[in-house]
Amino acid sequence: MQNSPILPADPRCEYLLNKEAIDRAVDDALLSGRYILGPQVEAFENAFAEYHGVASAIGVASGTDALQVALRAAGVGPGDAVLTVSHTAVATVAAIELAGARPLMVDIDPESYTMDPAALQAILEEWHEDATILAGCTPRAVVPVHLYGHPADMVAIKALADDWGLVVVEDCAQAHGARIDGVKVGTMGDIGIFSFYPTKNLGAMGDGGALICKDPQLAETIRLMRQYGWQQRYVSDVAGMNSRLDEVQAAILNVKLLKLDAFNERRREIARQYSRALASSAYRVPDAAPGIAHVYHQYVIRTTRRDELREYLNAQGIGTLVHYPVPVHLQPAYKGRDLTVGRQLPVTEQVCKEILSLPMHPGLSDDDVQRIVKHLKEWNAGKTA
Ligand SMILES: *Cc1c(COP(=O)(O)O)cnc(C)c1O
After folding, report:
1. Helix, strand, or coil here: 71?
2. Best residue for ligand 1 mutational test, from 194, 197, 300, 324 (most atoms within 8 Å of Cβ)
3. Per residue in 352-384, pLDDT tens?
4. CA nearest 104: which of 124, 120, 82?
5. What does pTM read for this prediction?
6. How many CB atoms lie within 10 A of CB 338?
7. Does ligand 1 have an atom closer than 6 angstroms to the CB of 148?
8. Rounded (10°) CA dihedral 24, 30, 34, 39
9. Ligand 1 geometric centre to CA of 128 (Å)
């Protein structure tokens, strides 16, 4: 077993840790005869709302859909600009365009890898000076991304959003359970959106997503929108879509939500082991300021010889990933869109060349971590021949 490959993420292992309960829950869902918007989804929505201490949670088909629905329900669409980051999953930007709005990229902070509030302020002020930079669009919403499980600076971002009248939708797809001074992400803005893609901190065994919000009217609009705008069957009160969480995924999520805090704690423990072992190396390791409860969706180090290191680890049977190698605004599909209104994003463009996501999932053993650390130290010391 010593040299069996170590995966960067391992949703199968999470299943095996809960196999009996998940099998039973799926069986129940299959035997119930209700496969869409039944008791499993309702139970999950109630439990997920309660976990966050908010009035409402609404299940949808994916994280991308959750963000699209959030923006549309908040009245954001054509003619509106939505400020977000380019250092994110492309889904964040795709969802903004699906809602009909124009994405506008803000640079990130080099420590937290999340939206830099000073850069947000700068671009809003630039637009205020010269509205032509957005070609007739008006900034209407901001989507901070709690990347890698580290919360964005919500205090500063919320203050700016209030000043400029922006809707705040938190992208929590990588940060289920992360907190700032005890307050969970997703509860500080107007709406929080989540993905349950299998490798996320709370993962289904297929696609799934959810939105949370405090405003009952907004929650009602979201609820209608996810199913054709129906209040009553076959009567559309608003123009909606079809984006539903299914009963089987909800049954699995009902089991896994109970494990979320313990799994996040295990991720933090693995992160502590990595950081302790790599403290005196040349690698830059992630950090969280006091009051920040990081949930380590990814444990991301930085090194200028990233690609060589990645190849070396791979040869030792250690799988790593890069989240993300190319910022959204430089990807082929988006290059021609001028998502930065002619600006550069120096931090975003620098970090993507140096970041490396080490294996991180709750099923990783201490021995696995020791083995990974041993190879990282050898590489750092140049003893890899
Ligand atoms: C995974 C992810 C999404 C999209 O979720 P899907 O369920 O794959 O649609 C959105 N934003 C971020 C930051 C993500 O990591």
Report:
1. helix
2. 197
3. 999 999 999 999 999 999 999 999 999 999 866
4. 82
5. 0.97
6. 15
7. no
8. 10
9. 31
